[in-house]
Design brief:
This protein is 3% helix and 51% strand. The strands form three sheets. The chain has an eight-stranded mixed β-sheet with strand order 1-8-11-6-5-2-7-12. The longest helix is centred in the N-terminal third of the chain and has 4 residues. It starts with a strand and ends in a 15-residue tail after the last strand.
Length: 136
């Protein structure tokens, strides 16, 4: 069974709103930003997704990994606004049985993670005002 699923945003969510972004740090070192194998910085982007479940609207904050040379928040001016998640994917970490240092068996994994290639604003910037004509 595949562990990564591509998501049709329009069919899955009623709305997706950008909230914030922050550098994704290297596991175990909160002072160093993580990068892809080719050196592109990784970011954690928080969005709130609205979806319908059992006839009711539900909201959930999703933490989405995005790789970008620039902070994804720059395009949004740091303001919450509707977004498109470009090439949005959901992955499921495999369930594993592990033994901790005290010899007890633990079940780990089985959790969802999210990634997208980029976020695009759904709201168009205001059109420039037409110059006033010289008619009087």
């Amino acid at each position: 069974m595949p562990a990564i699923f591509h998501v049709d945003q329009a069919r899955t969510f009623k709305a997706v709103m950008f909230l914030s972004s922050a550098p994704k740090t290297v596991f175990g070192d909160n002072n160093k930003q993580d990068t892809t194998s080719d050196g592109i910085p990784k970011w954690t982007v928080d969005v709130v997704a609205t979806f319908e479940q059992f006839g009711r609207s539900e909201n959930e904050v999703l933490k989405i990994s995005v790789s970008s040379h620039k902070d994804p928040a720059e395009v949004f001016g740091g303001m919450p606004q509707p977004v498109e998640l470009v090439n949005f994917r959901v992955g499921i970490s495999p369930v594993e049985k592990r033994t901790d240092r005290n010899g007890r068996e633990k079940i780990t994994g089985g959790s969802a993670w999210y990634t997208a290639d980029e976020l695009r604003p759904l709201t168009a910037p205001p059109a420039p005002r037409a110059a006033k004509s010289a008619e009087a």
